[in-house]
Structure formats: C-alpha cells, structure tokens
C-alpha cells in the first residue's frame, strides 16, 4: 500500500456517537500496549466521548480508512490562547 493510496482514502472526521465503540477499542489497545493494563477509572472521558469533548466545545477527530477508524486525536481548550493535545492514537 502506498502513501498516495492511503491519503486518497483517508477521511478525517469529527467523532460521532456511532464511532465511540471503535474509538474506545483503539485507545484501549494503545493503553494496554503502553502500560500493560487498562484501568477504566483513569479514563472517564471514554465512557461518553461525544459528551465529554464535543458538547463541551473541545475537538475530537478520527481518521477513517477503508471504513475503519485508524487514528484519533483531541484538543482540549486550556484557555483563550492554549489547547492541549490528547488521545493521540494510531492503529498498528
């Protein structure tokens, strides 16, 4: 697979409710790989991603390739001049 093919078929979208299960799975895979375990109590934002990010005015995007979520990222507004990048994950 070449880079041109990927770019031509990659969609960057704001998360929607119907993406949440697939996004949670991708993020938990990354957390498990990095830390060796998953503690749900440390990730309350993943219980309702749209409500936690979008409804509060923050940004949460997903990358979709061949109808599958392959990456995520969010920006949380810290103040009028600063945002914090969080939840950056890419499927292996």
From TrEMBL:
<protein>
    <submittedName>
        <fullName>Uncharacterized protein</fullName>
    </submittedName>
</protein>
<dbReference type="InterPro" id="IPR016181">
    <property type="entry name" value="Acyl_CoA_acyltransferase"/>
</dbReference>
């Amino acid at each position: 697979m070449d880079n041109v093919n990927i770019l031509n078929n990659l969609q960057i979208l704001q998360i929607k409710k119907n993406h949440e299960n697939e996004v949670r799975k991708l993020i938990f895979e990354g957390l498990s790989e990095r830390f060796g375990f998953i503690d749900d109590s440390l990730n309350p934002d993943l219980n309702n991603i749209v409500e936690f990010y979008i409804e509060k005015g923050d940004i949460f995007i997903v990358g979709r390739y061949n109808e599958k979520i392959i990456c995520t990222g969010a920006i949380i507004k810290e103040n009028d001049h600063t945002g914090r990048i969080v939840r950056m994950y890419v499927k292996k």
